[in-house]
Amino acid sequence: MGVRDLMAYARAQGRRLVYPLGAGALSQRWWEEQSAAWSWEERTAQNLAWQCHTLDYDLNNITIPTLDMLEGLGIHTGTLWDGSQYIPPGQLSTLEEADAFFAQAPREPPVLLRHLAALRRGKELCSKPITMGTFGPLTLAGYLMGAEELLVGMVEGPELVRRVLKGITAELVDWHQRAVDAGGDFLWVAEPMAALISPRHFRSFVQPCLRALFTPQAPAGFLHIPGDTTCLLDELVDTGAQCLSLDAPVGMARALARVPEWVVLLGDIDAFLLLEGSPAEVAQAVAQLHRDVAGAPNVIISSGGGIHPQTPYENIRELFAPEPVGP
Asked: pLDDT of 21-36, one tens digit each?
């Protein structure tokens, strides 16, 4: 059934939930130490369960990387001299090219099938809510068209931008429904490109796409946008997402004053502090966060943005410090 009402689920746990966005260096070591005989799908599922049950993460997800998603949608990628991949520019520059591209998008992309298999296996191993996440329509469009071309196009060529966003959204609706069918308990969408646009452009171009994903019939939707999204808070609420994953620059106390109680906030310990600070410094920041959100039931403790792979787990562990009780 999944998590349909995130606020009710959080209340039912009887404590503040903790959902770090990654496990840092400890997870890197875990991957290196596991049996080479395991398939990628088995390792990924085992890692999800390990984070939930050994590290006590209350929720977890596997997010498909952007370039893997674009290959899954059928876009051509190139390889640089060092082996890294990139998106050759100019692949979608006209409405005709966009129509042709989305008409032949793969129905069974291998990258999607791998992640769905890992999710199914993860559900067998993990009793906590988990899912498969994706990047959002605007971010993927930025890779497809080029970030500058996308942003300029919102002003000078909005028809092409809307066509590309519509096509990507249709594919994502299908991918997320298949994740739910595979046992995904909630929806996770990362939309970092949205931090670069105005509230007006967000309402016009992005909000309709996200509403198509975060429907009342779907499990609880989590929307993650790193950076300072203070100016977008009202627009983010209107996407239909039940949870907004906020970065440290927003400030949890300020966000709580802006959003309705049914919207759960996830955050917002600075990921750079987790990477470079001491455990004592992280503990101080977590204690301050607990003071800022005292009495607010609609907050899940997390990192403000994704955790760097080299982040020491001693710092991540400080996120699990119990909420103070009493005055």
From this structure: 999 999 888 888 887 7
CA dist., res. 299 & res. 220, Å (int): 15
> Which of 27-41, 59-73, 154-168 has the weakest average pLDDT?
27-41
State the alpha helices, DSSP H only, in 146-218: 147-156, 158-181, 199-201, 207-213
Q: Kindly state whether residue 35 falls inside one of the protein's structural domains.
A: yes
CA dist., res. 47 & res. 57, Å (int): 12
Question: What local confidence, expressed as pLDDT, does residue 29 receive?
Answer: 87
Q: How many domains does one find in the chain?
A: 1
Residue 58 is encoded by which pair of tokens? 């209350």
Give CA torsion, residues 70, 71, 75, 80, to 10 deg: 100
pTM: 0.94
E-state strands within 42-197: 60-63, 78-79, 85-86, 130-135, 187-190
- Interior CA angle at 287 toward 285 and 291, to 5°? 115
In a domain, 178, yes or no: yes
End-to-end Cα distance, the chain: 38
CATH number for the domain spanning 271: value is 3.20.20.210
The radius of gyration of the chain from alpha carbons, rounded to an integer in Å, stands at 20
Q: How far apart are CA 91 and CA 32, in angstroms?
A: 37
* Other Cβ atoms closer than 10 A to 327: 4
